[in-house]
Acetyl/propionyl/methylcrotonyl-CoA carboxylase subunit alpha
Amino acid sequence: MITRLLVANRGEIARRIFRTCRELGIATVAVHSDPDAGAPHVREADTAVRLPGAAPGDTYLRADLIVRAALDAGADAVHPGYGFLSENAEFARAVVDAGLTWIGPPAEAIAAMGSKTEAKRLMAAAGVPVLSVGPEPTEADLPLLVKAAAGGGGRGMRVVHALADLPEALTAARAEAAHAFGSDEVFCEPYLPSGRHVEVQLMADRHGTVLAVGDRDCSLQRRHQKVIEEAPAPGLPEELRTELHAAAVAAARAIGYEGAGTAEFLLAPDGRFFFLEMNTRLQVEHPVTEAVTGLDLVALQLAVAEGEKLPDLAPATVGCAIEARLYAEDPARDWQPATGTLHRLELAAPYQEFEGRGVRLDAGIEDGGEITVHYDAMLAKVIAWAPTRAAAARRLADALSRARIHGPATNRDLLVRSLRHPAFLAERLHTGFLTEHGGELTAPDSGSTELAALVAALADAAGRRTALPSGWRNLPSQPQVKRYRAADGGESEVRYRLTRDGLLADGHSGTVLVAAAPEEVTLLVDGLRQTFRVAAYGAEVYVDGPRGAVALTALERFPDPAAQVAPGSLLAPMPGTVVRIAAKAGDSVTAGQPLLWLEAMKMEHRITAPADGLLTTLHVTPGDQVTPGAVLAVIEPAA
């Protein structure tokens, strides 16, 4: 029997595992890096052990430190969660060799699936269909997908549409794979731009039982990373669903699998399917399977590790569940990651009351927490269940749209628009969905920004009035002026006056002020009554209203000249580490040409030349740490 469990992970998944442990009466141990010292998962554990340092390579990826932490804390079992060391066979062996119970498959099974090339060979031998190309790809094989043999999460992957681009793609994929996974082995496979990503949840025990516990569709992806997942996979003929489940079970049996795992397949438009990989761990998207089956997959993992036998049959699925991953990133700016303080993350009531079948929030961060460059950009997962797929999509979109999310940019608007998109509701799903519909999913709503700026100015004025001494009066003839910058960089100037006849605001002739307070403003906009909630954190202002949420930054009326940078300066859009440089001072560059790559939040981000010109100065070298707004280079525009 497991009595004290260490979770070799952080954030949302550590909290998720701890929740099941509390229900089962199992004591918990957390590990944490220095930036995570005050994180929720640390506070919620019975015991916490510090891993000195900040970077994952010094902390959460140090198998020796984690095993020592488990022994020092008196743990008798280790759960790896997902990511980090969860699919590291050597870590699994080290845990077992230390006399601890490993919550996962045997190390041999992890090793067998650890290399995608070896996994494909094993699956082909087991009769599971796989995608493959010859050692020398030809025009007939295009388009191709270059993939890292080790690791995952979209890293070390490049799409190639022309054979002439293959050498550059191979070089780039190898460099990223070596940096991310310690191995530069890559391979090519056919790329199906209109294929679907369908996976099967597996549970297996040491008594020979292997269950296919439902399936999921994870086709909505960006940069080969999942964004929206759902269970069951919609629109599958029952015969095809049965074949997928049988192939997944065969894959598990071929490697002597135990515990929770996922067999991932690419489903072609003609109904053929191909094995992609097997994730030998719990998946990020496991809550949708829990919602439709009523199972606690973490509890089943623990039961299997304790030697219990699984039931002979998996439960039937009931209804539909959809999960949206809330990322700290800006989809409109090439998915640029965002860091900073998350002031508030709050689902609107009554959604917070639901667990499993309703709306569920799994978050790794709380109000006031810091989003850092060291870890993945995922803030939380929001999961909705309903009797039908359309109802689940509507419930999830509504929960997200009403949520108050104050802090760095997120993909919330893209998630809501995706869930409400006619193609999504019509089940026209494929891995290129977000690329195909990206323009309409990320288009700014300038009208809502202008109105939000007016609301912010009125709330600010209301706050100032409550702070002024009695008898004070502003000059009625002078308009109030406030300037704000929106998340897309656009600026709005609000000019208004409050008169005996009501609100007079430039550009808002049909707007009537009903009431204004520092945290709430009610307007009549073209005859429609609308209430907005306002929250200010210093210069950051967030306006939540019927048309969505708008983030603004209050600007000084007279900017500080010392804050200006030289013309042509290329600024760092995010904090990160310079990993590669593709140009040097003195080079002539063209608009869109890659100059360097920054690594942030476990992803590489390409920095390109904004215009044609001469690269006169390059201020960084590989390995440099940069902060947002730092000058990376100076480009003299072409004449």
Notes: The mean pLDDT is 91. The first helix runs from residue 11 to 24.
